[in-house]
């Protein structure tokens, strides 16, 4: 699959075929894609915790996580820069996550990037995350159930919708409205 196709066909998958497994080779390719992402000051201080154990999957609040074959908990050191004003550790880990999502798409593997994971303290304890690391997100991996995708629910703003040199009050109201619509479509 070409990069352009992966970018425009990538979607968040929440229903997985529990009879199929992601191979170790494909998992290595997905992790490698994350490693090759740009990182602030080239620190590359991400850690990818692979979760396959069913008991460990229970630490996450989203029910569909248990159906995913593999999970990648993404953490990044938060103590490497003098100023965290622009949150370089979050930006770096997010670039790694996007690379992994695109690689998974290219391999025909479904994925979902999650940020609302439940109790941070509980997750830090369950996965032995040190205090100088932040949990940035979770990537679920598995083969999608074909009936999972509804094209009508995939709405993206157009280039004209977002092309501004500055945000105006009505832009912020539109962004808030779109957020509310997106949240309500998953309930």
Question: Which key phrases capture this entry?
Answer:
187 residues, alpha+beta, NADH Oxidase, 2 domains, 4-stranded antiparallel β-sheet, globular
Describe the structure.
Strands 1-2-4-3 form a four-stranded antiparallel sheet, with helices on both faces. The longest helix has 19 residues, at 88-106. The model has no long low-confidence stretch (mean pLDDT 85). Helices cover 37% and strands 16% of the residues. With 187 residues, it is an alpha+beta fold. The chain has two domains: 3-150, NADH Oxidase, CATH 3.40.109.10; 155-187. It is globular.
Strand order of the largest sheet: 1-2-4-3
Q: What CATH architecture label of the largest domain applies?
A: 3-Layer(aba) Sandwich
Total helical elements:
7
| Largest β sheet strand count, sense and barrel closure | 4 strands, antiparallel
Structural class estimated from helices and strands:
alpha+beta
CATH topology of the largest domain: NADH Oxidase
Please outline what is shown here:
This protein is an alpha+beta fold. The protein has helices at residues 3-9, 24-35, 54-57, 88-106, 120-126, 159-162, 169-185; strands spanning 46-51, 70-77, 110-114, 133-142. The radius of gyration is 17 Å and the shape is globular.
Topology (SSEs and partners):
Layout lengths: L2 H7 L14 H12 L10 E6 L2 H4 L12 E8 L10 H19 L3 E5 L5 H7 L6 E10 L16 H4 L6 H17 L2
Antiparallel strand pairs: 1-2, 2-4, 3-4
Helix pairs in contact: 1-4, 2-4
């Amino acid at each position: 699959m070409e990069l352009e196709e992966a970018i425009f066909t990538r979607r968040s998958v929440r229903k997985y075929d529990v009879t199929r497994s992601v191979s170790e080779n494909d998992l290595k390719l997905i992790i490698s894609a994350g490693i090759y992402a740009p990182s602030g000051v080239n620190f590359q201080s991400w850690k990818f915790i692979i979760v396959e154990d069913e008991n460990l999957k229970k630490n996450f609040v989203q029910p569909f996580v248990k159906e995913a074959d593999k999970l990648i908990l993404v953490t990044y050191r938060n103590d490497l820069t003098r100023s965290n004003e622009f949150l370089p550790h979050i930006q770096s880990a997010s670039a790694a996550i996007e690379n992994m999502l695109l690689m998974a798409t290219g391999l025909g593997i479904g994925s979902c990037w999650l940020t609302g994971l439940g109790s941070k303290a509980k997750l830090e304890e369950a996965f032995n995350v040190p205090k100088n690391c932040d949990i940035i997100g979770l990537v679920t991996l598995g083969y999608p159930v074909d009936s999972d995708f509804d094209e009508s629910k995939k709405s993206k703003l157009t280039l004209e919708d977002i092309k501004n040199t500055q945000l105006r009050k009505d832009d912020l109201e539109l962004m808030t409205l779109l957020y509310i619509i997106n949240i309500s479509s998953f309930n």
